[in-house]
Amino acid sequence: MIVFDNVSKIYNSCGVLDCINLKIAPQEFVSFVGRSGAGKSTLVKMLIGELTPTKGRILVDEIDVSKIKSKLMPFYRRKIGIVFQDFKLLNFRTAYENIAFAMEVADLPRKRIKEDAMKILKIIGLENRKDHFPTQLSGGEKQRVAIGRAIALKPEILIADEPTGNLDPIHTWDIINLLVKINELGTTVILASHDRDIINSLGKRVVSLENGKIVRDEEDGKFIV
Amino acid sequence: MLTSIKRILKTGFSDFWRNRWVSQATIGVMIITLFVIVSFFMLGGVMNNVVDDLKSRMDISVYFKIDTDEDNILKIREDLTDLNQIKDIEYISRSDALARFKDRHQNDPLILQSLEEIGSNPLTASLNIQASDPTTDFPFINQFLDKNYDSVIDKVNYQENKEIIDRVTTFSGATKRAGIVLSLILITIVILVTFNTIRLTIYSVRDEIGIMRLVGASNSYIRGPFIVEGVIYGVIATVISTFVCWAVFKGLSPRLASMLLDFNLYDHFTQNILYIVSLQIAIGITLGGLGSYIAIRRYLKI
Asked: Do B18 and A92 touch (CB under 8 A)?
C-alpha cells in the first residue's frame, strides 16, 4: 500500500505539488496524467526518494520514504523497479549486464542471476541482442532493457516515468503492453504519462494533476485536458 | 560478501578495459607524475654526491716545528688514528715535503734557485688529516691538537680552511632546503593535475553513478570498481614509468658522468630500484585509489 499523506513540494518558494492525498492499493495499475510541469515527475521522484516532500509524508508499506537514511536507501530501491523516459541504462554494459546489474547489487548468486536474466530477456523479447551495448540498440529496445532491469528483482512496485516519451507509436504499445503484463503478474504499476491515446485505451485508474493539485481520480478514467 | 568483492574486482577490470581511451589519459598523466618524483629522487642523489665530494676534498694540515722528532710525529699520528672523527691521516716527512715542493715548482727556476741558495731543507714535516664529517669534526680535532701537542706544532691551517668549510656547509644546507621546497612544489602540482584528470574521468560517468544509485546499488558497491580502476592506473603507470626511467638513466648516465663528478646515475637507479618501485607503487595506488574515492563522493548523494 502506498499512501501520499498531505504531500506538498515547494522549489525555491514556488509550489509544485499542493496537498496531495492519495492511496494506491497493492497490484493496482495507476496512471498519473497531466501536462508537462503538472507535478507528475516530482511525485515519482519523491516516491523513489530522489526528492523529499516539503510537507507531508509518503508511506510505502507503512515506511516513511523521506525518513529512510541514505545508507538504507539502496535496500528500499531494490523493492521498487523504476523506468525512466531517457532509459538511464549503463552505457558501458551490455543488455544482459544491465539487467544482471540490478541483481548483482542485491548480492544474488551468479547462477540465479544468469537464469533470471535469461528469463527476463525472453520476456522483453531481446534474447538475441543480449550482448549488445545500449548504443547498439533502438529506443524501443533500450526501454525494454530498462523495464527488464526494473523487474529483475521482482519488485512489488514498478514506477514508469514517461516511459514512452522518446518512442514511436509502435514501440510505445510494446512498452505499454509489457507494463500491463507485468501488472497482471501481480506488481503494482504506477505510470506517469501525458500520452492521451494510451491512457484512454488502458481502462485503468487515472489520477489527473493540474498545477500541482489532483483534479480527478477515477477508476477506468480518461485523460481530459 | 565474497561474491561482492569478486564482482567489484571483475567490474573494475572490465570497466578499465572498456574505458581504455579515457584510462590512457589518466595513466599518461600519472606516468609523468611518477617520473617527476623519481627524477627528484635522483637529483637528490646527485646533490648529495656533489656535497660529499666537496667534503671529501677538505682537509687540514698540521705543520710541526722543524726540529720535531719523526718518532714523535708518528706517535701523534697513532694517537690521532684512534679518534673516531678521523677518516684518514697522511704523514708527510720533511724530505717528502721537499720533493713535492720541487715537483710543484719544477717550471719555476727562480724558486728552485732560491731553494738551493738556502742549502738545507727549510720545509717542516706535516700530517694531512681528513675527517669523517668536516663541518663538526675539524673544530674538535683542532682543539684536540691545540690542547695536547701545542709544544711541537708550528701551525695548523684550520683557520684558513674554516671559511671554505663553512661555505660548503651553508651551500649544502641551502641546496638541500631549496631542493626540498622546489620538489614539494612541483610534486604538489603534478599530483593536483593527476587528481584533476581522475576527477574528469569520474565526471564523465557521473550519470551512470546516479543510475546505479537509483537501481539500488549501495555506495560501496558503486565505489568499489572505480577504486579498483584507480589502483590499476597506479600499477600500470608505475611499470611504464620505471621502464622509462631505466631507459632514460641508462642512456644519460655515461653522457652526464663527467658533469656530475663521476656520479653514475644508472648505478644509483639500479641500487635503489626496490625503493624507487615501492615509492612509485605507493604513490600511484594512493593517487589512483584515493583520488577515485574522493572524486566519486559528490555523485553518490542521490
From this structure: yes
